[in-house]
Amino acid sequence: MTATDDPARPRPSDGRDLIPFRQALRTWFAISLQTFGGPAGQIAVMQRTLVEEKRWIGQQRFNHALSYCMLLPGPEAQQLAVYIGWLLNGTRGGLAAGTLFVLPGIVALLALSALYVAFGTTAALTGLFAGLAPAVVAIVAQAVWRVGRRSLTHIAHITLAVAAFAALALFAVPFPLVIAAAAIAGWLIARYLPSTRTLPAEEASDGGPAPLIADGALHHERPGLRRTLRIAAIGLALWAAPLAAVAALFGTGSTFTAQGLFFSGTALVTFGGAYAVLAYVAQQAVHAYGWLTPGEMVRGLALAESTPGPLIMVVQFVAFLGAYRDPGTLTPWAAALLGALLTTWVTFVPCFLFIFLGAPHIERLRGNPHISAALKGITAAVVGVIANLALYFAEHTLFTTVDAVTFGPLQLQLPDPATLRPGALAIALTAAVLIFRLRWSMLRTLGICAGLGLTTALAGLT
What we know:
With 462 residues, the protein is mainly alpha-helical. The chain is built from 18 helices and two strands.
């Protein structure tokens, strides 16, 4: 039985929508409320909801889209949402999926930023969220297991995933080099190991119905020069218009213009996710522009990690504080809101532009054996990338101090055992039992852990 033969499954509502648009909106909104834990946790949410539960997209197609998104600057999980939304419902589906993916985080971080400025401390709220970060450690571990189990079907690809993890975690190899090497390795593996060229029937092996988006189906939207020029013109105009407006209204030397230009630039160089660029953002925001203090940058990062959405959302907190303290002709609160929203706009608009421009071409290249082999190599490396992010998140969640140590060519991040946070460890272990043993839902697990976090914070155990 195919996906569309099952009367219980949604049917296309027209020639473009594979599922009813309202149903897609409800699903993307539900996903957006669970996007804690950085890209690894966010990818895990989409993997479980779209691939395993609803079966709207097959594992191979999911991996193909993820591999392309890993090549792009910006938050790869949000771009993956745009890509899958585009596959399901065309351009409006991509816009809806990408917007809903970040909307709860925007609202939550705006509220927390305002509370921070108004009351000078977020101790109570941080205590409430203190349970979410340890829970995410377990969620990310589950993501590594699920994505790896379905994607690493040959020993050569398992080896490639381990090599990618070692390159990032032990040798601090730049992320773009890891992805480029993975693409070359994937091509070589397919050439010299013909058995890896056969795509495994992952969807058929678990006994469930076939996905709505079959691996061999082509998307209706064909790439072309006219389409490319139209989307590029519209996207660039939307990206630049707010920046041009604040420059005209408040001057080129205003805080708003400086923030718009700076974060427009960072949106183009965030290869490898937020962690790869946050050090540069912190250096410039703290030392070059003076928008906030080093301690406030750390607190902003903690808040961003504890709210749904991409971790790069921390730039909104940075802009909020910077504009509040240098409001120009506006009131501090109006300036803070403008700075935060402008920064969010210039950070995420390029994500939509990259997907709408590139996705149709990537879809047509799925039948190319050389491109498919390269992307399969990237998919294998992605498992190692997620594992490295999981390790990074665990170290910085369960320990107060993590030291950089060099042993010859090895560049390690080693936590100080004396700074272990017992409350965070207990919550992480509890979350692991709830997720792996009891198979609780993510939202239910996060709710329990948030309550435990508040309790341990009040008891001084974190």
